[in-house]
Amino acid sequence: MPFLIPIMKSPYQILNINSGANDAEIKHAYLQHVKQNPPDHEPEQFQIIHSAYSAIKDQKSRLAHELFSLPDANFNQVIEQALKTEHKVSLTPANFNLLLNAAVDESTVQNAIATTKK
Hints:
The chain has 118 residues and is mainly α.
């Protein structure tokens, strides 16, 4: 008998929603699946459903999932989603390097701290 590798499903596939779903749609799908697979009757299936929901339940979780869980993440799309600006963000490699190399001096940090304490 040949060894079969199980196909891993994404949290979106498990909850049967599209990847553009918002928080409310994800929660609704999660509750529907929990209703169909309650933890006291289907503990293994419930755990799979709960793990899928935990991975994508809010914007921060979805961003982490896309950055660290998907091997083919589209980083430009992830950056745009994270920044959520009204203006299109055009981040070139040169601009990205400038951002990485930007320095903040001690007086800037102290001013920022003093401003937040007021």
